[in-house]
Amino acid sequence: MTKFTDLGLAETILRALSDEGYETPTPIQARVVPAMRAGHDIVGIAQTGTGKTASFVLPLLQTIQEHKRRPAATACHALVLAPTRELAAQIEENIQIYSKFLQLRSAVVVGGAKPGPQVRQMAKGVDILVATPGRLEDHIASGAIRIDQTSTVVLDEADQMLDLGFMPAIRRILAKLPKKRQTVLMSATMPSQIRKLAGDFLRDPKEISVAPQSKPIDRIDQSVIHVAQSEKRDRLVSYLQSQTIERAVVFTRTKHGANRVAQVLDRAGIAAGAIHGNKSQSQRIKTLDAFKKGTAPVLVATDIAARGIDVDGVSHVINFDLPEVAEVYVHRIGRTARAGASGTAVSLVDESQRGLLREIEKLTKMSLPSLDGSTPDLPEVEPEKPGRNRRSQNSKRPQRRRRHGDKPARDGAKAAGQEQRSQAKKPQAKKPRKQEQSEVTTPKPNNSNRRRKNRSGAKQASGGNTAGLNRMLGNIDRSSQKKTKRRSA
Ligand code: AMP
To answer: Stretch 396-421: mean pLDDT, rounded?
Structure first.
């Protein structure tokens, strides 16, 4: 088995890893670190949870520490592009952790934060710049940063960038980088556009793919509570009060819903914070910090805001609203039962969501038991007619997912905002509540229209298996690895 000491990393880096409780490299680290050190371009197929961040950060740090070359004013040696502010912040946090015994400058530039402090941080030049594409382009245009001396670029979660409409920006940015450079592309999936991007911009890349170690879905105790829509908030409060919660993530469909649920919980004496696309960067950081520290152990979030948040010790995932697409359910519940722990996932299901529940049960090939033994005291949903679009059973819900061809967004949060604007222009089915608009939901396995999504759900339900679901959960089971909490936790 590869050891960190086999990877040619400096003692200062090894010490930081050891302080962090890392004992052995994960499979992606064992393969990407040497390949990057050898100067190869890389296509890495790996999901969050596999240790992919350290796999590209460690060789960047090693190179920087070997060269001891200060970056020129407003230039950066290495550039890491990420689809969302949260992921960018997390990458930067990892850089800080692994480089704590090194002398280097890093900065994170993302939308939703004031540009001034970012400009000042970049003025003297930085070793590693972590950025979302839209804000980076703004800074390039204003001359706050130049990338003509950048020798390594990493595109993290390239498939998410594609989903969020960043491909044109990525191509423009790559075209501005020096021809002689190292390019690393990380993606959980490899849709054809990502393959094409790699073909156009990478030189003879090494393809490194790691199957995430499965996290048994049976370690997650799943159940549902059948409840009328009007009683959901009270039921959520009573459920949370009945449980020993280490940390809980409550998923809502809309941003307004997230705010309201957080308020209700707070009023009931349950410390909670809401996180979604309308929150400012500083509010998000504060809320996430309180969640990590456990001072506000309940985080109410929309899918897009929760994407990329990596916090261990989530004991409960609660679906206040079921997701529109069954696969998203699997991603949501994968927030719990991390790092070898077990977890609980509970879904509050009202009468309008019974069709969605059936789709989830088909996909997971399990019937989700009712927590309190209650059966829904509700009329049966009209059976589906053969050949009819399965969406029809929920036809009162508006079409919410972004379609290909919608205007590309400049960053994750703007993507959500633009989604709302573009949806406003489209003919829509009647909305259940006129003031509510949901954030973009971008499930991984299939990102075309809903009709295809439903077909894929049906296919997985009939032909899939638990291993496939575990793959979707995609988080490394590090039960054998002693991992201390992050400094920030
Ligand atoms: P990532 O896939 O980069 O998001 O990493 C997922 C989690 O695994 C993070 O909490 C990291 O701190 C942790 N991690 C990464 N590499 C290792 C390792 N070699 N040993 C233990 N934990 C790790």
So the answer is: 35
